[in-house]
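User: Teach me something about this protein's shape.
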Amino acid sequence: MKVRIPTPLRSYTDQQSVVEAKGDTLDALFGELDRQFPGLRFRVVDEQGRLRRHMKVFINDEAARDLTTALGPTDEVTIMQALSGG
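Assistant: First, the predicted structure itself:
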């Protein structure tokens, strides 16, 4: 499946904005991404196995709530880094 990578994380993917990976759940997908691109998972998933607060993940334009979310082979996943400021 296609996974869209935000600019701040592209240093892990050799500057690729879209990569291919497989997984039946978001957790499995991030495990596969980490095998391909070491360190990427830690930037999106915290030590308790939850999506980091400043990261948003969308599956086919719908927000994912947690890593147990099921994925299909034709799904597209977009990782976004939330911006803050004042």
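Now, about its shape. The first helix runs from residue 26 to 36. The domain at 2-81 is CATH 3.10.20.30 (Ubiquitin-like (UB roll)). If you'd like, I can walk through any region in more detail.
User: That's plenty for now, thanks!
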